[in-house]
Amino acid sequence: MMKKLDLNCDMGESFGAYVIGDDAAMLKLVTTANIACGFHAGDPVVMRRTIRQAREDGVAVGAHPSFADLYGFGRRRISGERPEDLEAQLMYQIVAMQGMCALESHPMTHVKTHGALGNMAAVDPDLAALCVRAVKTVDPALVFVSLPYSETYKAAEDAGLSVACEIYADRTYTDAGGLTPRSQPGAVIHDLLQSVEQVLEMVVGGHIPTTGGKRLPVDATTLCVHGDTPGAVEIVRALRASLAENGVEIAPFSKP
Fold it and tell me: Which helix (H) or strand (E) holds 110?
């Protein structure tokens, strides 16, 4: 049976006069878009424009909530927030995106946590449960996009949410199955050939190669590329071609 794989991209990260990524070109190639909700990037105008373009291109859309960290692009580790305050911030972002999607007649399908929030929740059971609770409170029908081998994946399953197992084209992995911290050398893959080889190993081979030489079993639902990565559009074109050559069908994991 032919393997199916979703291609998702973190986008909608332009803000005011600042343009980040080529969202228009990317939406012609991916099947799912994770749209910034204004806390780490994006703004209401960018959110609306990205949703509209995604609807026209037949791309599923979801919320990409984060810590309140515009200055650090959501990549700074923030602690000390009262749990109820952080939960409210996440619900606010999800509701804002869901409402904007409803107004544009393009229903939202999923939620994926961004940056430091997602990385911290992946190893912190309490934070993972908080993120999952925020999603379920807003809409239990939403799919939760999560890394395998993470606390968020476990929490989402335990809460009864549908979970989409996500892998990355441009990030390396630790022996525990998590993403290599960006502060460490080799965390981000810049070589296209290396990226393609890693993706094929994960999707076709069914294993995540780690920096320590392990091969962790994985059944990937969706493959992420970052819209702000230099040459991201060319990377996605190459990935799509390689996946097609290896018998992988590109299709969204959830349709509006």
Answer: strand 110-111
Asked if residues 15 and 42 have their Cβ atoms less than 8 Å apart, the reply is: yes
Domain borders along the chain are: 3-250
* Residue 140: both structure tokens together: 């239990």
Q: In the structure encoding, which two tokens stand for residue 131, read together? A: 């993120």
- Are 124 and 117 contacting, i.e. CB atoms less than 8 angstroms apart? no
Cα(75)–Cα(119) distance, integer angstroms: 9
Contact 35, 47 (CB under 8 A): yes
Residue 55: count of CB within 10 angstroms of its CB: 18
The tally of CA atoms less than 13 A away on the side-chain side of residue 60 is: 21
CA 107/CA 87 separation, integer angstroms: 22
Instruction: Please return the burial class of 60, using the count of CB atoms within 10 Å of its CB with bins 0-12, 13-18 and 19+.
Output: buried
Answer positive or negative: Cα dihedral of 58, 62, 68, 69: negative
Which H or E run includes 6?
strand 3-11
- Which of 66, 46, 52, 75 lies closest to 111 in space, CA to CA? 66
Q: Please state, in angstroms and rounded to a whole number, the distance separating the CA atoms of residues 70 and 47.
A: 15
- Across the 256 residues of the chain, what is the mean pLDDT of every consecutive 10-residue run? 90 92 94 97 97 98 96 88 95 98 98 95 97 98 97 98 96 93 87 93 96 95 86 89 95 88
What's the token pair of residue 17? Answer: 């006069």
Tell me the CB-side half-sphere exposure of residue 192, using CA atoms within 13 A: 13
CATH fold group of domain 3-250:
TIM Barrel (3.20.20)
